[in-house]
Specification:
- The complex is a heterodimer of chains A (163) and B (178).
- Helices cover 66% and strands 0% of the residues of chain A.
- The radius of gyration of chain A is 31 Å and the shape is elongated.
- Chain A starts with 5 loop residues before the first helix and ends with a helix.
- In chain A, 20% of the residues are buried.
- Chain B has 178 residues and is α/β, with parallel strands linked by helices.
- Helix content of chain B is 40%, strand content 20%.
- Chain B contains 5 helices and 7 strands.
- In chain B, the strands form 2 sheets. Chain B has a 5-stranded mixed beta sheet, with helices on one face.
- Chain B is elongated and about 85 Å long.
- Classes of the chains: A mainly alpha (163), B alpha/beta (178).
């Protein structure tokens, strides 16, 4: 078996470290602790609900009386012990799924991390492939092709020469 | 192509496909509300204050076909709708098994009292100062009119100013659904 070149070995190590780094970042983001206080939960839910009387604003961002009423209701529901999902579903039941402005819940490890890991892996693979191909000796030109090119050039020179 | 490179290319393809799917999924999310989300569901059983210090118990109207109209005194479309509501109520007020409730939100009690007196409104008027009923019905503005069957199920909805025909249709829907 051919031993990998020292440069290639270090590139592979670098690639492995980068992949591990990306995976670690994804896991850390996905495993972020959920807000614990009632106020934080209510604020997060307000940001996930679309203001029903506004154009593209969340309940958190809208100054409308309806949005204020929803914010108050959300705070009341959170204080009463309803889970985030129960609060969201209460509004989906009234307004349909369009009331949800943001993706719900904490993004899963797979949904958040897999595309990033795959894209990073592909990028590293591309870099390695380019490096590998750059190290290969250049291809030699077929002598018959060289001869053909020389003949064509000579013919072109003859045509362009003034009589 | 060697196996590792092929594997990486495959991984890239899957990654790109997933990213595209996530983007399309995000873009495809509807930005509009479902106008019929509350239809077929039990009507909210809110108890609201009226203009005289009493209470309007929506659940207490069970057994009658009910039209619930959300409005307020400063809303121009509500003012456009007012004559149709008055004509409609005058036509059906004496009929058994019929009730109509006007629910006012985003308004002051004084302004509502003035409006009710000036327009000789005979149907129940309830105040919704905290928008509780408005949220429970899933309103997205005013005026909006909901039809509730005698069994207490929301069976019809009209967003925007209703015509006399719209109101008749809503009442018909409420009565046809037992």
């Amino acid at each position: 078996m051919r031993r990998p070149l020292p440069g290639r070995r270090s590139a592979r190590r670098l690639a492995a470290v980068l992949v591990l780094l990306v995976v670690a970042v994804c896991l850390a983001v996905a495993a972020r602790p959920a807000p614990t206080s009632a106020l934080q939960r209510a604020e997060r839910l307000d940001a996930q609900l679309r203001c029903p009387v506004c154009q593209g604003l969340s309940v958190a961002d809208s100054p409308s009386s309806t949005a204020r009423a929803i914010a108050a209701d959300v705070a009341r529901r959170v204080a009463a012990g309803e889970s985030d999902e129960q609060v969201r579903q209460a509004y989906v039941a009234r307004y349909g799924p369009g009331i949800l402005l943001a993706p719900t819940g904490t993004p899963g490890v797979v949904a958040l991390g897999l595309p990033i890991v795959l894209a990073t892996t592909a990028g590293i693979g591309l870099v390695l492939a380019v490096r590998r191909n750059r190290g290969r000796p250049g291809r030699s030109v077929d002598p018959r092709d060289e001869e053909l090119v020389a003949r064509l050039r000579a013919a072109a020179d003859r045509r362009e020469r003034p009589r | 192509m060697r196996a590792p490179v092929r594997l990486l290319a495959g991984a890239a393809a899957v990654g790109v496909a997933l990213l595209v799917a996530l983007m399309v999924g995000g873009l495809g999310r509807s930005a509009t509300f479902d106008p019929v989300a509350v239809l077929g569901r039990p009507a909210p059983a809110d108890v609201l204050p009226d203009l005289d210090g009493g209470r309007v118990d929506l659940a207490g109207l069970r057994g009658t076909a009910v039209l619930v109209n959300f409005w307020n005194s400063w809303c121009q479309p509500c003012q456009e709708e007012a004559p149709a509501l008055a004509t409609f109520y005058a036509r059906h007020a004496g009929e058994p098994g019929f009730a109509m409730v006007g629910v006012v939100h985003d308004d002051t009690q004084e302004a509502v009292s003035r409006w009710v007196a000036a327009h000789d409104i005979g149907w129940l008027v309830a105040l919704d100062p905290d928008n509780v009923a408005a949220l429970d019905f899933g309103t997205t503005g005013q005026p909006e009119t909901y039809a509730i069957s005698p069994s207490g199920v929301v069976v019809g909805k009209r967003a925007g100013p209703s015509t006399l025909d719209d109101l008749e249709r809503l009442l018909d829907m409420a009565r046809r659904t037992s």
